[in-house]
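Good day; I would like, with your permission, to put a structural problem before you. What I wish to show you is a protein chain and, alongside it, a tokenised description of its three-dimensional fold. I would ask you to consider whether the tokens describe a fold that such a sequence might reasonably adopt. You will find the record immediately after this paragraph:
***
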Amino acid sequence: MDAFTKAEQLRTVRQKVSAATGVPAELLSGDTEEICTAQANAILKFAKPSGYPAVKDGGEPGARGGTESDGVAAAFGALNPSLKI
């Protein structure tokens, strides 16, 4: 089998697996459909989001007791007690 035919077969296999799994063919490096499918499944498992991260304050707006600008103003006031904001 010449190099061109082999390259075309690899491209066809990777495109087929890509279409079936949604994983880009460029990420697949196997030389058989079985290996490419296993790679695609591993990529999908790795890339699958595990959900939203846990938030200590429950994710409520302003749950930290104020806005960022309030904190900046307080820090500025502590460093410059003679100035009134």
